[in-house]
Amino acid sequence: MNQLVWLDAAAKTVRVQAGMTWRDLQEAIDRVDLAVMTMQSYSNFSIGGAVSVNAHGRYVGNGPVGYSVRALQLVLADGAVIEASRTQRPEMFRAAIGGYGAIGAITEVELDLALNERIERSVIPVALEDYPAYFQESVKGDADCILHNADLLPPLFNAPVAISWRRTNQPLTEPAKLIARNKSYGTEQNVIFTLTELPGGAAIRAKLIDPLLLKKPAVVWRNFAASLDVAELEPRTRRMSTYALQEYFVPPRHFMEFTREMASVIRKHEANVLNISIRHSPPDTLALLPWAKDEVFSFVVYYKQRIHQAAMRRAGDWTREMIATALKYDGRYYLPYQLHATGKQFARSYPEASALRALKHAIDPTGKFSNALWAEYL
Q1: How buried is residue 276: exposed, middle or buried, by Cβ count under 10 Å (0-12/13-18/19+)?
Q2: Is pLDDT above 90 for 135?
């Protein structure tokens, strides 16, 4: 289930089996100077999986991956193999994108592609209160800006560092088209481990390590920037601790209030948050279960936690408080991560789940397709 079905380079479209990873696709399309339109920051994930969670990345103005999906092949509970798109069985199409497998299994995905262009990095510190206006004027308002995120670092999470990648004709600083598959990430893993265990590690990172890494000029191919390997985030061992993610989506009008309260919750619970990455999405009018009902800033929280039961309970406590804070400011939380939300929090975040539940009962009445998420909330 990981093969290329067909590629139309002239039309910038492709069809793949759902088990193909973004990296596999990048290798197939790079040779014809094409790139993935929208994907996660890391290329290891399967394309079918990314569609099922309606993933997003750092792409400016693109929204979630669902917007680049042209059509899907689905296998239903009764064994039927169907085609779904915006014009053919649109209700199935909308339910499959970001539906976490509730209505069936995605087996093929047809996608729009983009040109593989040179992009140049810029790194600009921005005052927290200025960031929404900066984003609107200098990022969203710049047609050449392809990728963008802003990093917030501990302990205060109040000083965004805006990182943007824009189209350029400048000479490449990295000639490779894609990051090598066999690259070793031992140094990165050791640095992250050290910074999260040593007293003052956050200050060392903010004042020394990140500025050194980001001040170097960078001009790369779009495919190179999108071929990151999630191995760089992997812990050296999971015997005692692991790294995890949470994500929250909040309308721009509540950016300041949410950011400050989010930081307060993290400090209150002494959560070991390594960084928070801010992204953006326009409203999602496609998915039946949208995480961006309105225009939103997304806050991707990357943290370290111990794996014993008491630590898991503490993580649940501060996660539920984070979700409550997002809901307070008309926001939502992202569903793929640890199932800490209460049933009421899920229902408030995703009132559209009732429509998904009704469709599932109609086409999968025995509940053949299930998982931990839907066993808990649907």
Answers
A1: buried
A2: yes
